[in-house]
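R.M. (postdoc): so does anyone remember the format we settled on? I'll just put the structure tokens first.
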């Protein structure tokens, strides 16, 4: 099965990494995990306190686009969300090559 990898890099406001992480975590646990085509995700916090990165696998890019139209997804991207996050860099990748241990 082919899958899409969605990588979203959030640059956070100074001192707001935990706030940003909690809101992104809320979005994934309340909305994303219930969407058709969602396979799995990992949330990462950079050790320098400047970024939160979400790496998610989906069946298709169209399903990611549909997620963005979900009312709860939109509601959670409110003023509080953007007070913690300075920049959002979403990227969609198609699998090109995978390496597995022997």
């Amino acid at each position: 099965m082919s899958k899409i990898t969605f990588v979203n890099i959030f640059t956070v406001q100074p001192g707001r990494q935990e706030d940003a992480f909690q809101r992104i975590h809320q979005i994934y646990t309340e909305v994303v995990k219930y969407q058709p085509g969602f396979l799995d995700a990992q949330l990462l916090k950079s050790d320098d306190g400047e970024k939160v990165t979400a790496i998610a696998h989906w069946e298709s890019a169209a399903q990611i686009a549909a997620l963005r139209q979900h009312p709860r997804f939109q509601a959670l991207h409110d003023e509080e969300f953007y007070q913690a996050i300075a920049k959002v860099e979403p990227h969609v990748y198609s699998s090109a090559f995978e390496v597995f241990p022997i």
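R.M.: ...and that's the designed sequence above, right after the tokens. Also worth knowing: The chain has one domain: 4-94. The beta strands are 4-12, 38-45, 51-58, 85-94.
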